[in-house]
């Protein structure tokens, strides 16, 4: 027995989930994803990662600009779905859409709810210095990530994790939750638990917050850098030119915040930060030693 499913997702984070749902033998009646957008330096119109995977798998794909249109929800209802599986779709579903499938809509989220509801849970968890997070499937309800939890897998945030590495792990950990979730739904054994605790909100990353504030402790700046790596990338100015900091590590040291102690070791509000991997504007990423071979950054230089 299998369920009749609609899958709603857009970025590469969602692709393993669609793959696992198909592998579990469920019928994916239609895939919903965001329309093709211009991307990259050439601004070429490109289909989403989910759209590209769905094409390979021979699945029907719909790319509505908005789920607010009556005709879009009419078509969703006409599919006679058992459930919709949602992973980083990028649109807010109105109440009528949430109620269209027999068992409603389930959503995979990359945090331990109710901590980090919203658009950037992976980045915010690292930036805040959280030690653990989770991949969770919730029963979607009206409101931002407010639904009851039906399946969960916790995950340690490593001291070396970037937004990229944690994103990739949670993508696969979360994908593996779909088969047991849908199996439980088939046998009417899916149990939901309300979210417990004070909510925090993971606002979309604003490029303005990417600039490094050297008055903060080195440990906090390390989390900030890792949470913004590789995109949009935390940055500072060295000799008046913008440089992204992709990887750093807290070390012993003191001085005026922003002061170069030696090499690319920078004094912070507490301790110091060694800039291990950087990317000057318009160039590729490079290790500290390679950067210093082409740039004179004497001790005492103040970074801004």
Summarize this structure briefly.
This protein has nine helices and 17 strands. It is of the alpha/beta class.
Q: What this model shows, in words?
A:
By secondary structure, this protein is of the alpha/beta class. The protein is elongated, with a radius of gyration of 22 Å. The protein has nine helices and 17 strands. The strands form four sheets. Strands 5-2-1-6-7-9-10 form a seven-stranded mixed sheet. α1 runs parallel beside α6 (163-175). It folds into two domains: 4-202, Rossmann fold (3-Layer(aba) Sandwich), CATH 3.40.50.170; 207-294, Formyl transferase, C-terminal domain (Methionyl-tRNA Fmet Formyltransferase, Chain A, domain 2, Roll). The chain has helices at 15-23, 49-56, 70-78, 95-98, 121-127, 163-175, 178-186, 218-227, 288-294; strands at residues 4-9, 27-32, 37-39, 44-46, 61-62, 83-87, 105-109, 117-118, 132-139, 149-156, 201-202, 234-238, 241-251, 260-262, 265-267, 272-280, 286-287. Helix content is 25%, strand content 27%.
Widest β-sheet, arrangement of strands: 5-2-1-6-7-9-10
CATH class of the largest domain: Alpha Beta
Shape: elongated
What is the H/E string? EHEEEHEHEHEEHEEHHEHEEEEEEH
Q: How many structural domains can be distinguished in the coordinates?
A: 2
The CATH fourth-level homologous superfamily of the largest domain: Formyl transferase, N-terminal domain
Give the total of beta strands.
17
Task: State the end-to-end distance.
Answer: 62 Å
């Amino acid at each position: 027995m299998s369920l009749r499913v609609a899958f709603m997702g857009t970025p590469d984070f969602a692709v393993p989930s669609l793959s696992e749902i198909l592998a579990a033998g469920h019928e994916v009646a239609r895939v919903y994803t965001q329309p093709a957008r211009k991307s990259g330096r050439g601004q070429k119109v490109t289909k989403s990662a989910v759209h590209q995977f769905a094409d390979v798998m021979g699945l029907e794909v719909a790319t509505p600009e908005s789920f607010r249109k009556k005709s879009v929800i009419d078509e969703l209802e006409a599919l006679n779905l058992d459930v919709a599986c949602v992973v980083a779709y990028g649109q807010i579903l109105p109440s009528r859409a949430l109620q269209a499938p027999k068992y409603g809509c389930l959503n995979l989220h990359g945090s331990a709810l109710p901590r980090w509801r919203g658009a950037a849970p992976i980045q915010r968890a690292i930036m805040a210095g959280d030690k653990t997070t989770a991949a969770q499937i919730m029963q979607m309800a009206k409101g931002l990530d407010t639904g009851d939890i039906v399946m969960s897998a916790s995950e340690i945030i490593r001291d070396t994790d970037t937004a990229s590495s944690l994103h990739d792990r949670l993508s696969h950990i979360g994908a593996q939750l779909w088969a047991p979730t849908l199996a439980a739904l088939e046998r009417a054994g899916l149990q939901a638990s309300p979210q417990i605790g004070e909510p925090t909100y993971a606002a979309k990353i604003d490029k303005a917050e990417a600039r490094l504030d050297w008055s903060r402790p080195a440990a906090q700046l390390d989390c900030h850098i890792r949470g913004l790596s590789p995109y949009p990338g935390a940055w500072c100015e060295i000799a008046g030119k913008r440089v992204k900091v992709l990887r750093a590590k807290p070390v012993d040291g003191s001085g005026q915040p922003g002061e170069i102690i030696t090499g690319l070791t920078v004094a912070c509000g507490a301790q110091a930060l060694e800039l291990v991997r950087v990317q000057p504007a318009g160039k590729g990423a490079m290790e500290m030693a390679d950067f210093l071979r082409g740039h004179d950054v004497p001790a005492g230089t103040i970074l801004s």
